[in-house]
Amino acid sequence: MSLLAGEIALDGASRSFALTPDRTNTLKELFVRGGRRARHGVRALDDVDLHVAPGEAVGLIGRNGAGKTSTLRCLAGIVPLDEGRAECGGRTVSLLELGAGFGADFTGRENILLSGALHGFGRAEMEERVDRIIEFSELGDFIDAPVRAYSSGMQLRLGFSIVAHLDADVMLIDEVLAVGDESFQRKCMARIAERMAAGATLVLVSHDPTAIERICRRVVVLDGGRVAFDGQVADGLLFYHRLLGQGEERARSLRPDSHRAAVDVEELELLDEAGRPRAVFRTGEQLDVRLRLRARQAAERAVVAVEVRDQRGELCFRTDETVGALDGATDLTFSVPRLNLMGGDYDVAVGAHDQDAPASPELDRVARFAVTHSLDGEGIADLRGTWSPVGRREVVR
Amino acid sequence: MRYGFLFEQMVRRELRQKYKGSALGVLWYLVNPLVLMGAYALVFSVLLKVADLPDYPLFLLVGLIVWVFFSQALLAAAPSLVQNAALVRKVRFPRETIPASVATVQLATFLVMLAVVAPLALVIRGSADPALALLVPLVALLFSLVLGLSLLVAVLHAHYRDVEPVLAAMLLPWFFLTPIFLPIDSMPGIADHAWLGEVLRWGNPIAPFIEAIRDVLYAGAAPTGGTLLYVLVAGLGALGLGVGLFRRLERDLAVIL
Predict the structure, then answer these.
(1) Pairwise CB contact (< 8 Å): B251 & A118
(2) How far apart are CA B53 and CA B219, in angstroms?
(3) How far is B111 from chain A (nearest CA, A)?
(4) How many structural domains are present in chain A?
(5) Which of B187, B188, B185, B234 is nearest to B208 (CA)?
(6) Helix (H, G, I), strand (E, B) or coil at A77
(7) In terms of residue numbers, what domain contains A255?
(8) Which value does ipTM take for this structure?
(9) CATH number for the domain that contains residue A262
C-alpha cells in the first residue's frame, strides 16, 4: 500500500528502548540478530495507529517520556520500529534538534548545502534555494560566520529556514520553535501555513499549547507510548491538562506545620457546577472554591482571602471577605459563576485569620487549575466581545 | 548518484574539522610518513645495514605511504560514527557516508603523496615501464579494501567501544609484521622458516598490496599473477564484507550512539 505525497501512516507501530545499555551481548548474537538487542525496557511506542491526510497539521503533545520524540524519529526513519509500520509519503524533512546536521566549523551558508545534502537534495536544487533561505533567516552577515558562533535563536533561524524551503511533503518539527523570538515565530507560522496550503503535512511536537493552537487543528495526545486522544485542538488540550492534573496533589499547604495560625485552611478543592472536583475549566464555566476552615480557638470575626495568580505570578484577582464568627471546623464555598479567564495555568490561593490579627490574611493553601485555550482570543481576561457594523456615518469636522 | 552531493559535503565537513586551527593543514599528512621514512632509512640502511637494496629510501617510502594510508584510515574511521552521533541520532541519511568520507579524506592525502613519490620513482629509475599502468587499478583496489574495512570497524566500534583501542593496539605489531622495510624474501630469518614467509605474505591482507604497488613503482615490474589475484579478491571481498555488515548492523545506530 503506497502513500500519497504528504500522507502519514502509523499502523500498530511499536518500539521499545532498553533503559540501561545492554552490554552483555556476545558478538555472535550481534551478527545473528543484526544489532537488534533483547529489550525489556520501556515501550516508547506501544501499538500506535495514526493516519494523517495530506495538508493536515497535527500537534503531538504529552507528558515527558510519552513517546512524542520517539514517534517523530520513527516517522523520520531514524529509528526503526520493532513491529508495525511508520511511513511518510513523498519527501520528508525533519527538524528534531537545534543544530542537528550542522557542521560547527562550517559557515551558515555552507551548512545550508550540507543540510540539504543530508535530506537528499542535489547541488543544483540547493543552489537555487540558498538565496531564499538566507533571506528568510534574516541572518545577514552572520551567514558567512561559522555556526559555532551562533546563538540558539540564530541556529533556529537557520535550521527552520532550511527545512521550510526544501519543499517537503512532510515536515516533522520537534520543540524547536520555542527558542525563536516572537516575530520570527510568527514568520515561521506564516511559512508553515503557506507550505500547508501547498499540500504539505506537518507534525509538530511542543510543550507550548499556544504554538499548537496557532498552527494545528488536530491534536494527538500520547501517554505511555499510546494514543490517548486524537481530535480537535480545544478538546485535546483539555484532555491533556486533565492528564497533567492526575496524580498530583490537588492543593498544597503554603505554611510549615509548625507555623500554625489561629484559623487554618484545612482543605481546598476546586469543583465544577455539578460539584465534581476538577483541575481544568473552560472559559465561562462555573468554578467553585471549596474550603474547610478550622479555628484553633473561637474567632469573633474571621476574614477569608482568595487570590488568583497566573503562571508568571501576576495577580489576576484578590478579595478579602469577613465571614463572621468561627468555631471548630467550617466548610465554605467561594463560587465564581462565570470564570472570565482565558487559557493558561492559574493558581488559586486561600487564607484565613481572625480579624484581631494585625495583617491581612496570610495565604495558607494553593491549588492549581488550568483554563483551556480558545481560538478567538489571547491574554488573561475574557473580554471577548462582538463585532458589528455601525452603518454609514458621515464624519464632519 | 543521488547521494554524490551529500558525499562531497561530508568530505568537506571532515576536512574542515581536521584542518581547523592547524598551521600546516594538509601538510601534516606528508610529514608523518616522511619522518618515519627518514628514521627507518637511517636505522635499516645505515646503522643496522640489513637492507642492501638499491635506492633504499624509495623502497621504504613506497611501502610506508601505503601503510600510513591503511592504518590512518582505519584509526580515523573506527570512532567516526560515535563522533558524529548527533548527526546519526537526529537526521536520516545513509550512514555509510560518515566512515566513507573519512576514508576518502585519507585517500586524498595518499594520492597527494603518490603524486610526489611516483614521479620521484621514475626519475630515480630513469625509465618508465608499462607495468606502471597497473598503478591505477591497484590503488582502486587498495581503496576498496580500506573502505570496506573502514565501514566494518566503524559500525563494530559503534556497537562495541573496545574496537578502536584494540585496533590501535594491533596496528603497531601489525606494522612490524608487514614487509615495509624489507621484502619478505630478504628477511634474514626467512631462509630457515619458509612457511613463515608464506604466512607473512598471504596472511596479512595489506602485505600483497604493498608488494604489488612496490613492484610497480620501485621495481618497475608487474606483480606476480598470484599477488594480483589476491589483491583483486581481497579488495572487492573487503568492500563486500564491509558494506554487507554495515547494512546489517546499522539498524539501531540512532539508538545505541
Answers:
(1) no
(2) 11
(3) 25
(4) 2
(5) B234
(6) coil
(7) 251-371
(8) 0.85
(9) 2.70.50.60
